[in-house]
Amino acid sequence: MSILKRAIEIDINAYIKSNETKILFIWGPRRSGKTTLINKLAKKFNVAKYNFDLASDRDKFAPRREVLEKIVKENNIILIDEVQSHPGSTIILKLLHDEFNVNVIATGSSELRQKSGQKFDSLAGRFNEIYCLPLSIKEIADNVNPKDSERENFYKNTAINSQIWGTYPEVYTQNNISENKRIDLLQRILDTYVLKDIVDIYELKNQKLAKDILTKVALQLGSEVSIREIANSLGAYHTTVSNYLEIFIKNYILIPLPSFKTNTRKAVSENRKLYFYDLGIRNMLIQDFRDLELRQDKGGVFENFIMIELEKTRRLTNTKVNFYFYREYGGKEIDLIIEDYKKNYITVEIKQNKGKSRDIFPIKNISKVITSRNYFEKLPTILPTPPTSTPATSTPKLKNI
Q1: pLDDT, tens digit (0-9, with 9 covering 90-100), for 85-107
Q2: Do residues 313 and 319 make contact, with C-beta atoms less than 8 angstroms apart?
Q3: CATH class of residue range 137-382
Q4: In angstroms, rounded to a whole number, what is the distance separating the alpha carbons of residues 243 and 234?
Q5: Tally of CB atoms within 10 A around 316
Q6: Nearest alpha-carbon partner for 84 in 136, 138, 40, 28
């Protein structure tokens, strides 16, 4: 299995080369490549890697100055994998930042915020954060670097494969295995990391219900998702379904797309659309890996594919925009509304084959259409270009180098 170069390595290297000593969090779902990044850094800088999934590594980080001082002396960069697995992570990281002039890079899931509660607030002003998600099309292209004459076919084939098998790194790089083995690999990721991990972390009571909820969402790609309808169909409480969905959103399994509300009475919708960060996982849930042309859901799958790519770009580039969909009472709809922080709007129609923009959005906007034929040209032009490509931060940006 080849090791791919990831887009966020630029941000990681900038952090290490700078004088920045804030903690650098790398958030993302399990199996998205965070551990591979940490291993590469450990080898490059000849330092230890600590995995907080292991009790033996957690025990090395007692929140005492003499203990942490020893670790700092042995490692000019402290690398921690699965930081959320240590209940005392927040206190330890705060001490490392406040007491020692050392780089700390910690990977994990965003549930560290939820599990730590107000304790995590003590890290305010002490960290930067970036995201490691399943591979984007641009990352794949940058690694393959196809010839100009092959670029169009490359993007076409990559899009098709991504819509069927997804882009988890270990699935994408296993291109020599049979389809049955690839399905087995996706099943293992779904069962072990998407479901069991989240159920264990949040101490949820029902893994089957979690899977059933995700499956219901998987069958509604491109449509509004009613929590009440899902709850009624599964015989579950409305609040339970809502809580499970929020957990899947916070752990990079689902992408929420709320409806755009205006002051006019034409817009309507209390529901959201929900998309998957990885279509291989979605297809595993509904157990359908047929060619796209044989599938009735190919339009919804393509819409999800475009939303994945735009969401990854937004997070990787720290572009300050919000995403919505828009629907009138009469039923007319725009697939995607992009709103920047100055209230400029881009309306996007996402069509599997061909289509045209609808002039129904009540605010001045720029309209664009993405299809399976032009997506590789259009995607880089959809989002506003951010001022710089520095990491997403909750504090001032890293200095340029």
Answers
A1: 888 899 999 999 999 989 999 99
A2: yes
A3: mainly alpha
A4: 15
A5: 23
A6: 28
